[in-house]
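Allow me, if you will, to draw on your knowledge of protein folds for a short while. I have a record of one protein: its chain in single-letter code and its fold written as discrete structure tokens. I should value your view on which stretches of the chain appear to form regular backbone elements. Thank you for your consideration; the sequence and its tokens are set out here:
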Amino acid sequence: MTGFVPPPYPYDRLNDLRALAGRRFDEVIDCSIGTPTDTPPEMAVQALVSSNAERGYPASVGTPAYRHAAAGWLRRELGVAVDPDSELAACIGTKEFVVSTPHYLRLRNPSRDTVLYPAVSYPSYAMGAVLAGCRAVPVPVDDQWRIDLGRVDPGDAARALCLWVNTPGNPAGGLDDLTAAARWGRANDVLVISDECYVEFTWDGPPRTILSAGVDGVLSVHSLSKRSNLAGIRAGFYAGDPALVHYLSEVRKHAGCMVPGPVQSAAVAAWDDQAHVVEQRGVYWHRLELAQQILGALGLSTDLPAGSFYLWARAPDGDAWGLAHTLAQRCGLIVSPGEFYGSDCTAHVRMAVVQPTVALELALSRATDTPPG
């Protein structure tokens, strides 16, 4: 009998392109994965190494300082108030939360077996459903890459444990109507979980959170990975409906989900500072413009995103792997074919502008050179 066989990890499928670029160029510029490379805030690094919090077991829910710092950031930057003692808890980054939560929700309500998620999205939403033994059901998006809740099958809604939304969206940078998503969830008795890890890189209008529509039946998920270049320390939080926060925090306590003590101290420092985020916003916007110029040098016209730090581009003739090959060969630049993010986007590529500005400038100079004969 054959059990579950994990599919290939998407980004491992790019190794041939990395090798191709490496044969042609001394420096390969890997923009396939959204992993930050810029310097994290110094005060967070200092708090990490000087916390004296490495001995005892850390609080799974997060220390009071951790939860109050996260709640303070929500209040200052997103204009929402949550109770740090009952409506907010820590998580180990957010990817583990995304993948593990469907399993915990199904334990809570075995009568439901479906996870709804945007058809064009980060692959971990679907993988979390698969690992929980649930049905992973994609919800179509509109021409602005926003989730189209009017196209959810009522039968799927009746079976749904949760609906994931992601604003700004990965990979395409779309901005969902989060108030409408909360309203839909309440009308259909479906928990709506809003992944908002790119919220501070919202370019079209102010940053938004589902918590602005109230906490009943919703959770908001946030991370230090993107805003503070602290992906390596794995620190985030979830906030919203107090009954769900309580349930998940209790289950996660039993599962041993604990943000390390020194990391919690570093997170407090990072949530309390906004100056480094303002600086990072300017850096990413400039890099998005450079990425747009790189594709323009290859004859492609691409719009800048409404949010996030990804450039989402349609490939000539819809051949995403062909464009990825061209960028590797012409520029030493590695991007992700759109099929990594859903069957509805196989004609696109995603470029994460996380590599240093000088590296993207180098890619641009290569793109403007005469192509090899």
Remarks:
- The two ends are 52 Å apart (CA to CA).
- The mean pLDDT is 96.
- The first strand starts at residue 29 and ends at 30.
- The domain at 10-39+276-368 is CATH 3.90.1150.10 (Aspartate Aminotransferase, domain 1).
